[in-house]
Design brief:
Helices cover 55% and strands 0% of the residues. The protein is an all-alpha fold.
């Protein structure tokens, strides 16, 4: 699993429709983190490398810090799907949307994270820092503060994000 740098390529080819490049990178990082954990390995190095290759080393460091903060205080197991899954789990959505919205509304970011962690503030702060680094690198994250309908692709019957 540690050599799974193809996580982003798999996600881009068969992952959820309508995600920005920044959201795709975050989702690939989440899925690589979970897959590496399930394989009994430490995910930090491989996930940091994926993020560094796709964005920057700084983004990799912040992503790893966010995930470590999340893991230290989870309320329950976080649902993460496998790399090639077409849809994405509600917990994945919560993390990605919290990262996007954190730049404009920290209260909403904390509210999105509350079902996942006992103290959402540290994770929200890392999510905001990651958002800023992604933006600096040209991968702006959408805030997704609205519930506009998303036209489904072939065989897709759900929207990309839940709000």
């Amino acid at each position: 699993m540690a050599d799974d740098a193809s996580a982003l390529a798999q996600l881009s080819d068969s992952g959820p429709l309508g995600l920005t490049r920044g959201e795709q990178v975050l989702l690939a990082g989440l899925r690589l983190w979970a897959g590496t954990r399930l394989a009994g390995e430490a995910p930090q190095a491989s996930v940091r490398q994926l993020m560094a290759e796709q964005v920057s080393d700084r983004a990799g460091a912040i992503f790893v810090a966010m995930m470590e903060s999340l893991e230290r205080q989870t309320r329950r197991p976080v649902e993460i799907r496998c790399g090639p899954c077409a849809g994405y789990a509600q917990d994945e959505q919560r993390l990605i949307v919290a990262c996007g919205v954190s730049r404009v509304d920290m209260a909403t970011a904390r509210a999105l994270l509350t079902p996942l962690v006992m103290q959402p503030e540290p994770v929200a702060i890392f999510a905001r820092a990651l958002n800023m680094v992604l933006s600096h690198e040209g991968l702006d994250m959408p805030a997704r503060l609205f519930d506009a309908p998303f036209p489904p692709g072939p065989g897709v019957h759900t929207r990309v994000t839940l709000h």
